[in-house]
Specification:
- The protein is of the alpha/beta class and about 325 residues long.
- The protein is globular, with a radius of gyration of 20 Å.
- The model has no long low-confidence stretch (mean pLDDT about 95).
- The chain binds nicotinamide-adenine-dinucleotide.
- The site of nicotinamide-adenine-dinucleotide has 22 residues, from loops.
- The site of nicotinamide-adenine-dinucleotide (NAD) has 22 residues, from loops.
Amino acid sequence: MKTLKIAVIGLQFGMAHIEGAMGNGAEIAAICDNNEEHLRFAGERYGVPKEKRFADYRDLLSRADIDAAVIAVPDQRHRELSCAFLAAGKHVLCEKPMALTREDTLAMIRAADASGRMLMVGQICRFTPAFEKAKALIDSGTLGDLYFLESEYAHDYMKIVDNWRADPLRHGVIGGGCHAVDLLRWLGGDPVEVFAYGTKRLLPQVPYDDATVAVMKFDDNTMGKVFVSTGCKRDYTMRTVIYGTRGTLICDNTSPTMTLFTAGEDGMAHEPEIIPVEVNNHNAAREFEAFADAIRAGTPALTDAREGAKTVEVCLSIIESAKTGRPVRPDYTF
Ligand SMILES: NC(=O)c1ccc[n+]([C@@H]2O[C@H](COP(=O)([O-])OP(=O)(O)OC[C@H]3O[C@@H](n4cnc5c(N)ncnc54)[C@H](O)[C@@H]3O)[C@@H](O)[C@H]2O)c1
């Protein structure tokens, strides 16, 4: 099987992608960061020779020794870099959120369609062991028909927000909350309407709400709820509860167990089953494996450009609803 030759651009969270690619037998053909120290650090850490280290991503575009690029730069630059690599004939794995505006997601979809190359969005929660197991339990019918799903993204940004994350466009609901929104979309389908409230109490340094609660309905009469708090006083978690007509599953991405209630013959839930699960909330290795498999098979990635754009669309709808006080129906026409 042909070895994939990868460029990784943006070398902070991008280092997880270097490890994910190396762990899957890919070759690191280039690394790139416009911060000299970050470039040197990653180069030395992963043994990437100096001739494969670049400060300007444009120097990579015409290189024949690169099959695919992983884009892990600030969200505001996702469109520019993804479109440039796609136009240069490279496959792209772009970090979440795909972009911060509908205009940008549309441009990225068009660039992917025009290039015939793959654009996958790094919605990494779809590769979290507990959430993969939740998806399998839903698909096998263990929970029956779903009637309510909730997920939360609780992550204290107090120490990491004084940079591009404080941009008004980089609202917490889209920046980190996109994980919980994407998870609900994956498990429950596309919400047809959302309604949200927001409040700002904890992060004086950001110009947007630091806590938001959104309720939503799906077209099969299922309900959902997403809670996002980017100033919370607790450990990071994505606590998730899935209620179905035959059972209920409680899980998150930071616990070694999941709790499953199922109804017995009498229709009652008795003792829950405690299911052990690996804790791996940033499973870049599995995400890269899915990217590489889709490239090799020529099939769409699990989180292809339209999937990434739909998640952004729901996040933008939640932000709009909290701002206007009105329900919003996401527009999935791309
Ligand atoms: N999947 C996840 O759970 C997860 C976790 C963290 C970050 N992210 C995403 O990864 C991306 C990067 O986040 P981060 O935390 O690493 O940010 P960061 O600000 O810590 O690091 C970004 C890096 O990109 C470099 N950079 C910026 N612009 C560049 C450019 N034009 N060309 C080359 N290098 C450039 C910076 O010098 C820096 O080294 C963001 O999109 C973020 O949302 C995802």
